[in-house]
Design goal:
Elements: H1 25-31, H2 42-52, H3 65-73, H4 76-90, H5 94-128, E1 132-137, E2 140-145, E3 154-158, E4 166-178, H6 180-183, E5 189-190, E6 209-210, E7 215-227, H7 233-236, H8 238-241, H9 250-279, H10 284-298, H11 303-320, E8 323-325, H12 329-335, E9 339-342, E10 354-360, E11 363-366, H13 368-374, H14 387-395, E12 400-401, E13 409-410, H15 413-424, H16 429-435, E14 438-445, E15 450-456, H17 466-472, E16 477-484, H18 485-488, E17 492-497, E18 500-503, H19 506-521, E19 525-534, E20 550-559, H20 564-575, E21 579-583, H21 588-598, E22 607-609, H22 610-614, H23 618-624, E23 630-632, H24 636-648, E24 653-657, H25 663-668, E25 671-675, H26 680-685, E26 688-690, H27 695-731, H28 744-763, H29 788-813, H30 820-845, H31 853-856, H32 862-880, H33 882-888, H34 895-926
Parallel strand pairs: 9-21, 9-24, 17-20, 21-23, 22-23, 24-25, 25-26
Antiparallel strand pairs: 1-2, 1-3, 3-7, 4-5, 4-6, 4-7, 8-26, 10-11, 10-20, 12-13, 14-15, 15-16, 16-19, 17-18, 19-20
Helix pairs in contact: 3-5, 4-5, 4-10, 5-11, 5-28, 9-10, 9-11, 10-27, 10-28, 11-27, 11-28, 12-27, 14-15, 19-21, 20-27, 23-24, 27-28, 27-29, 28-30, 28-32, 29-30, 29-34, 30-32, 30-34, 32-33
The structure holds adenosine-5'-diphosphate and magnesium ion (MG).
Membrane topology: Multi-pass membrane protein
Organism: Rubrobacter radiotolerans
Subcellular location: Cell membrane
Length: about 950
């Protein structure tokens, strides 16, 4: 056998093919010209970034411009228009043909622009939600975007991190990753730093490598990047795993359906008009063209573009309110949410924990007064009876204290609070860490609700640690555990009193339990600390075993004030028919106290704990979730059961989460909501990410979701009622021997103004005053519910009849049957212009479903106002500009015709307002 030759790892493309798993970590670092402590220098990193390019998987399969164009061109609506154009051409009407084709082009362009913009907006949002990485550069930890990673970068990994490049593990503290995306193995894989022999062993067996596309599910560690971008293992199979599905939203699918139904109706009516016209012996060519124009009139051409526009705009507005949308359909689903399940800590509360009470067998202190009177910088004298508790709280702790005095600390707020309170008493975490170095740990886990660290105990040391040393009875190691007090005391068999370990009997434990309950009932989070001596360092797999036969050290109770804006948001939810539910790992009494404070629950509300849930059958749980406002001491798995039970009751559920274990519940919920501060795994499973972790942001996103829904319904109401009117105007008069009141080209032009310009203006409408005071739209709720169907019918009918009457009067004035071609053109122009006026006023009135136009005003929506102005100018141009008169067959109108047109338009406005008045009465009766 030849000795394995030492492979070089040149820092050039292609080098990742070499098996860095076979090498010592040191050698990998050397060949990568990297440093396992200081990381790369910023300069070197930029040089490598230039050489290797950004760490990205090339997007393939996103729809190209050509595909988007084709989708638009091939829609039923456009095909009907094209057919109309062909008919017009066949009949020798070049102007109509050109006009129709111009409109086809306009709508296609409009559709393509909106689709393209929406696609780009979503791509931009995706970039925003791309994971960040904690790398070390120039010896300092920095948060960088995963795109900026280069080979040789030193990266720190922690539970929940997404791994964004292929890396060689340098250090592993119980590091475990999930590699299902890459290898199909669903069990987490243990990672180590030692070299592994065998050049071509399977990816899954290279346990000292971590791969792009996988994630850390447990522990922490560090690693050096060996391959980025398309050169990662993930990059190689990128084509296989890219999710290219172009998701249509529920609304999009339903509106597609609606458009098809309308197209069918359009063709039916057109056929009837054509046949009756023929039977009456009308001019065949004109009847054919009229029939086709009718079909065009009925179909809401603008609907797809307006919908895409509104959705993309909704996503953008949500981002403005700190909710990052990861999937477009979430925008509208948010509008239908009926239950919001929210974490407590950090979402409903500020997550600014402050320890206000300490309790040990030898001393009880309440710091509330001291803190209030002497402020947050207060320093206190150490009482020896408190020292073991404080030291354990600061040692069994991953927060990073501020160098200047340690009265602030970065990291988990619960842990920061413990570091700070120890520092108040003169026990600096940095000094403690130096005196008692940590040698092993079991990380915090929200299912166990505790964590443990193991430390070396030096033979001598500061006097303040005398108490801790008493705990070990001379053994070389001490293990310290801190966690939820109510369960941790069950693991304690003794307690530390006056430097002696005394047994803890059941009466003693009962007394502790009462003390914990008293503290928790006030809304405080209570942690206990405990410890024990260890003769030997436990095996890695047996670490959790040290959490037994513990010696109780004391309790630390901390307050976490509610977020000031949360109370209002809870109020808003309730008014909006949405039930807020608190789900927390905290103690039931703490949870209920905060929930009561926020108005989410009564002071004596029923609280279910994880243990209660474990005893419930799905059926019983289904009943329970109908009213229980607070779930406490739950583990992430319970969240999944709660979501399922709520959904079985027909609820549309938004659920928050931040941890790795929350991912299944986030996926299951209709809207998974990840915390911006949460793990990458949670974010990936979620539909939206809260950039500020704030409950109020969920409520704001729901409001924007409702606005999207409202604006789409607004457009449907406006467009279809108008189209119904137009159908009547065209189809009815011939039955009474009147001439055609609207030339085909006029209908098309009117549709362009209505569906194109005014529709877009409607899409940007802001929330109405009562948007959050009505019940949510069920996802299955008809587009025509809540008075929209009636509106379309009544307003469409009045519009049609009004215009026909106007046309009849104009025809009589022009001489009736003697009107001649010029007279008939004047009649048509009169109706055409009155219709435009009416549509403009109707658009302004549609700004609200219920509030009168004199209350909403017209200035609130600048785009709509601009579109109304533009439409008016275009209409006047078509009527008064001679070249356009030629094309559209219009005649200039005199003051009488204009005044008559305005009068009919105002009449329409009054009908619209009367309908709103009726809605207001109905809703006040219904409420
Ligand atoms: P929440 O839903 O309020 O965020 P967690 O799952 O974070 O709840 O925490 C559940 C319980 O675990 C807390 O009530 C607390 O007692 C305990 N706990 C929280 N953080 C830590 C920590 N860093 N170390 C030990 N115990 C903790
Ligand atoms: Mg938490």
């Amino acid at each position: 056998m030849t000795a394995p030759k030492r492979p070089a790892i040149p820092v050039t493309p292609g080098w990742s093919e070499l098996a860095s798993h076979e090498l010592e970590a040191r050698v990998v670092l050397e060949t990568l010209e990297a440093d396992g402590r200081l990381g790369l220098s910023g300069e070197e990193a930029s040089r490598r970034l230039a050489e290797h390019g950004p760490n990205e998987i090339e997007e393939r399969g996103g729809r190209t411009l050509a595909q988007i164009v084709w989708e638009q061109v091939s829609s039923v609506l456009i095909l009907i228009l094209v057919f109309a154009g062909i008919v017009a051409a066949a009949l020798g009407r070049p102007y109509d043909t050109v006009a129709i084709l111009a409109i086809v082009v306009l709508f296609v362009v409009l559709g393509v622009v909106q689709e393209y913009r929406a696609q780009r907006a979503i791509a931009a949002l995706k970039k925003l939600s791309a994971p960040t990485v904690r790398a070390v550069r120039d010896g300092r930890p920095v948060e960088i975007s995963a795109r900026e990673l280069v080979p040789g970068d030193l990266v720190q990994l922690e539970t929940g991190s997404t791994i964004s490049a292929d890396m060689r593990v340098l250090e592993s503290v119980n590091l475990r990753t999930r590699e299902a995306a890459l290898t199909g193995e669903s069990e987490p894989v243990d990672k180590t730093a030692a070299p592994i022999a065998g050049a071509d062993i399977a990816l899954g067996d290279r346990t000292n490598m971590v791969y792009s596309g996988t994630s850390v599910v447990f522990g922490r560690g560090s690693a050096v990047v060996t391959a980025t971008g398309m050169r990662t293992e993930l990059g190689r199979i990128a084509e296989l795993i890219q999710d290219v599905r172009h998701e249509k939203t529920l609304l999009q699918r339903r509106l597609d359906g609606l458009a098809k139904v309308l197209a069918g109706i359009a063709l039916g009516i057109a056929a009837v008009v054509f046949v009756t016209g023929l039977a009456r012996g009308d001019d065949t060519a004109l009847m054919l063209l009229t029939a086709v124009s009718l079909a065009v009139a009925i179909v809401p051409e603008g609907l797809p573009a307006v919908l895409t526009f509104t959705l993309a705009l909704g996503a953008q507005r949500m981002l403005g309110r700190k909710a990052l949308i990861r999937r477009l359909p979430a925008v509208e689903t948010l509008g239908s949410v009926t239950v919001i399940c929210s974490d407590k800590t950090g979402t409903l509360t500020q997550n600014r924990m402050t320890v206000t009470a300490l309790s040990t067998p030898g001393a009880d202190v309440d710091l509330t007064e001291v803190l209030r009177e002497r402020g947050p910088d207060v320093r206190l004298d150490l009482d020896n009876a408190l020292a073991p508790l404080l030291a354990a709280g600061a040692l069994c702790n991953d927060a990073i204290p501020d160098p200047g005095g340690e009265l602030e600390a970065a990291g988990d707020p619960t842990e920061a609070a413990l570091v700070v309170v120890a520092a108040r008493y003169g026990l600096a975490k940095s000094a403690l860490d130096a005196a008692l170095p940590r040698v092993a740990e079991v990380p915090f886990d929200s299912a166990r609700k505790r964590m443990t660290t193991v430390h070396e105990v030096p033979p001598d040391g500061p006097a303040t640690l005398q108490g801790l040393r008493a705990l070990t009875g001379g053994s070389p190691y001490v293990s310290l555990t801190k966690g939820a007090a109510d369960t941790l005391i069950d693991l304690c068999v003794a307690s530390l009193q006056d430097g002696r370990v005394v047994p803890l009997d059941s009466a003693g434990r009962e007394a502790l339990r009462r003390e914990i309950e008293a503290l928790t009932a006030g809304g405080m989070r209570v942690l206990a600390a405990a410890g024990r001596g260890l003769e030997t360092l436990p095996e890695k797999d047996a670490l959790e075993d040290v959490e037994r036969d513990l010696v109780y050290l004391g309790l630390a109770a901390m307050v976490d004030p509610p977020r000031p804006e949360a109370r209002d948001s809870v109020e808003t939810c309730k008014a909006a028919g949405i039930r807020p539910v608190m789900i927390t790992g905290d103690h039931p009494l703490t949870a209920r106290a905060i929930a009561a404070d926020l108005g989410m629950a009564d002071a004596d509300a029923r609280v279910l704990t994880g243990r209660d849930l474990d005893r419930m059958s799905p059926e019983v749980l289904r009943e329970a979730v109908r009213e229980v406002p607070v779930f406490a001491r739950v583990s992430p798995e319970h969240k999944l059961r709660i979501v399922e039970a709520l959904q079985a009751n027909g609820e549309v559920v938004a659920m928050t989460g931040d941890g790795v274990n929350d991912a299944p519940a986030l996926k299951k919920a209709n809207i998974g909501v990840a915390m911006g501060s949460g793990t990458d795994v949670a974010k990936e499973a979620a539909e939206i990410v809260l950039l500020d972790d704030n409950f109020a942001t969920i409520v704001a996103a729901v409001e924007e979701g409702r606005v999207v829904y409202d604006n789409v319904r607004r457009f449907v109401q406006f467009s279809i009622s108008g189209n119904l009117g137009k159908v009547l105007i065209v189809a009815v008069p011939p039955l009474f021997g009147l001439p055609l009141l609207l030339a085909p080209i006029m209908i098309l032009f009117s549709n362009l103004l209505t569906d194109g310009l005014l529709g877009l203006g409607m899409g940007v409408e802001r929330a109405e005053r009562n948007t959050m005071r009505r019940s949510p739209y069920a996802p299955s709720e008809s587009m025509f519910s809540r008075g929209i169907g009636r509106h379309i019918f009544v307003v469409g009918l009045v519009l049609g009849v009004g215009m026909i009457l106007l046309g009849w009067l104009a025809w009589r004035a022009a001489g009736g049957d003697l009107a001649g071609v010029a007279g008939e053109a004047l009649v048509a122009t009169t109706v055409f212009t009155a219709l435009a006026f009416a549509q403009l006023l109707r658009a302004l009135s549609t700004r609200s479903f219920t509030a009168p136009i004199w209350r909403t005003g017209v200035r609130g929506n600048r785009l709509l106002l601009a579109m109304v102005g533009l439409a008016l100018l275009l209409q006047l141009a078509v009527v008064y500009a001679p070249p356009l008169q030629e094309v559209f067959g219009t005649r200039p109108l005199g003051p009488v015709e204009i005044v008559a047109g305005v009068a009919v338009a105002v009449l329409m406005l009054l009908v619209m307002e009367a309908d709103k008045g009726l809605r207001r009465r109905e809703s006040s009766l219904g409420a």
